[in-house]
Design goal:
The complex is a heterodimer of chains A (256) and B (14). With 256 residues, chain A is mostly beta strands. Chain A has four helices and 19 strands. Chain A has a nine-stranded antiparallel sheet with strand order 6-2-3-4-18-17-16-10-14. Chain A has a five-stranded antiparallel sheet with strand order 5-1-7-8-9, covered by helices on one side. In chain A, strands 13-12-11-15 form a four-stranded antiparallel sheet. In chain A, helix 1 runs antiparallel to helix 2 and helix 3 runs antiparallel to helix 4. Classes of the chains: A mainly beta (256), B mainly beta (14). Strand 19 of chain A pairs antiparallel with strand 1 of chain B.
Chain lengths: 256, 14
């Protein structure tokens, strides 16, 4: 049996918001350590890897591994019904046909209970080996979201160029070009505002702007985002959770 | 022109 209670429903709301436009159906795999999701978008360009660690829950219990096959659009309709500050409890039997979603208001005596039908989904869990990256950038997630939104208005591709001194985001479209250059710096007072650039080898990669626009839907999950890049390889974009992470692996574009 | 790659090219099990 699974019984997981969040102190606030906001975390699950943000998680669903962050992934529902990239994947429609996915398995939530529940183990004693927490909940994981791995899913690939229909075009097989973007992979989502989510871990909501046990410590993200106020109370968590999962005696046996349980798989919840969830339609995220339906789940989102229910999860939106809770207030962000409500307790959120997920309950499922060992071989469940549905999952119970319970919201509890902290001040009033209001309890809202929903049941979501589960689906039987294929689960081909992918073992992603530890990848080697040539450059790592950590920056404020809101800044990365703004750069993505701004440059996407010019082109359907977004180029990321990393040198020793800086990282340059660049787009080249029909009516014009744009770029944003960031230098590494440390903000002692607000560490989350810092920009950290670690580069072993210079990087010049091009990505589909629409996929990065989907990735930055994770912005509300974390103050900062870490971007890991390697030549002609998928990039890793990571938003840290209080216990766990939301990672996106994005295949690049390149000349054949 | 840049071609979009898929993850299957990099992760064999996809």
């Amino acid at each position: 049996m699974l019984e997981g209670k969040f102190e606030e429903s906001s975390l699950m709301k943000k998680v669903v918001d962050a992934i529902k436009d990239s994947v429609k159906l996915c398995n939530f795999n529940c183990t004693e350590h927490g909940v994981t999701v791995q899913a690939v978008d229909d075009s097989r360009v973007l992979l989502i890897s989510l871990l909501i660690g046990e410590a993200s829950f106020e109370e968590y219990r999962c005696d046996r591994n349980i798989t919840l096959g969830i339609d995220l659009e339906s789940f989102n309709k229910i999860i939106k019904n809770g207030n962000s500050s409500d307790f959120l409890t997920l309950i499922a039997e060992d071989s469940p046909d549905n999952v119970l979603i319970i919201f509890e208001d902290k001040k009033k005596d209001r309890v809202s209970e929903y049941s979501l039908k589960l689906m039987d989904l294929d689960s081909d869990f992918l073992q992603i080996d530890d990848m080697e990256f040539d450059a790592t950038i950590t920056m404020p997630s809101s800044e990365f979201a703004k750069i993505t939104r701004d440059l996407k208005t010019l082109s359907e591709s977004l180029q990321i160029i990393v040198t020793k001194e800086n990282v340059k985001f660049s787009s080249d479209g029909d009516f014009g070009t744009g770029n944003v250059v960031l230098k590494g710096f440390v903000d002692m007072d607000k560490p989350d505002e810092s920009i950290k650039i670690d580069m072993a080898r210079p990087i010049n990669l091009t990505f589909g702007a629409k996929y990065i626009a989907d990735i930055v839907k994770g912005t509300s999950l974390s103050e900062s985002v870490t971007i890991k890049l390697a030549d002609k390889s998928p990039a890793l974009f990571e938003y840290k959770l209080p216990s766990g992470f939301l990672r996106f692996y994005l295949a690049p574009k390149f000349d054949e | 022109h840049h071609q979009q790659q898929t993850l299957g090219r990099f992760f064999s099990s996809l």
